[in-house]
Write a structure and sequence with these properties.
alpha/beta, Alpha-Beta Plaits, 2 domains, seven-stranded mixed sheet, four-stranded antiparallel sheet, 9 helices, 28% helix
Length: 292
């Protein structure tokens, strides 16, 4: 059996329209990918997490006419679809093709993220078995990598840790594997909390060491040795007072998801309660480490 696969790019604000049009035109499935290496972090409450520029891959029956579909989309969009391509696809093991794209990654000296179907390259290292996910991150983006590198160099042994905006729990999992005594994870998405618990359990960690909360259920009076927040600059600024209140005196905070030009504004929001002594950058992204 074979199919027709069409690829093109759209701005994120046209997503719902284009998905509806493709369904009308007979698409069997629609896959969305990031067109600009833009991470999907925790969105504001009620917001739909979507990239600004999206690669669309639409699968049609083999007999579909790509030229006719292109003309129809051009008419509805008001311009030719960008980066258009079409390809005939033969039947294959799609799950295996997807899995083969992901390889183990090392962070720092001894911390590895290993897709759960791979054997760890260094069995004696600190290996995090993780299934890649769409929106929650697996360490491939600079913001997450910067946090993982820091955790590798500063393992939170016996610490109580808060991960605010935990996503799939990769930072929470790393902190637990590196010796954190107790970890509290908070996210606005219930599926993120499920993914965090599943990833912790997959790694043989006692889930009694992990507490999971939606923001409205999160205890307001808890304080922690280390607070982690890998989200975006705007919510980091909005949450500054709240996150600072959860740092024990003398405790630490790490913040990421910050573009270079936003770093000063983020640091100012946490002053004077937090002194940032460690500012690191990878590509356009900045990581901040501070102490209360």
């Amino acid at each position: 059996m074979s199919w027709l696969q069409l690829r093109f790019q759209i701005p994120g604000d046209r997503l719902e329209q284009v998905e509806s049009w493709l369904e009308d035109l007979g698409a069997l499935s629609v896959t969305l990918r990031d067109a600009e290496d833009e991470p999907l972090f925790e969105p504001p409450p009620g917001a739909l997490p979507v990239w600004r520029h999206i690669k669309v891959e639409a699968l049609f029956p083999a007999e579909a006419d790509p030229a006719a579909i292109r003309r129809e989309l051009a008419q509805r969009l008001g311009h030719e679809p960008l980066a258009w391509s079409s390809e005939a696809l033969q039947d294959q093991a799609w799950e295996r093709t997807w899995m083969d794209q992901f390889e183990p990654m090392r962070f720092g000296e001894r911390l590895w993220i290993v897709p759960s179907w791979h054997e760890p390259p260094e069995p004696d290292a600190v290996n995090l078995l993780l299934d890649p996910g769409l929106a929650f991150g697996t360490g491939t983006h600079p913001t997450t990598a910067l946090c993982l590198d820091w955790l590798d160099r500063h393992p939170p042994v016996a610490a109580e840790v808060l991960d605010f905006g935990c996503g799939s729990g990769v930072l929470a999992l790393a902190a637990l594997k590196l010796g954190a005594r107790q970890l509290v994870a908070v996210d606005i998405d219930e599926q993120a909390l499920v993914a965090s618990r599943d990833n912790v359990a997959r790694n043989g960690i006692d889930t009694d060491r992990l507490s999971l909360y939606l923001p409205d259920d999160f205890p307001a009076d808890g304080q922690y040795d280390l607070v982690m927040a890998n989200i975006l600059a705007a919510p980091l600024i909005d949450l500054a007072d709240k996150l600072v209140s959860h740092i024990r005196p003398g405790g630490e905070i790490i913040l990421s998801g910050i573009l270079q030009e936003q770093a000063d504004s983020v640091m100012a929001a946490y002053a004077p309660a937090v002194h940032f002594a460690d500012v690191r950058q990878r590509e356009d992204w900045v990581f901040l480490h501070g102490k209360r």
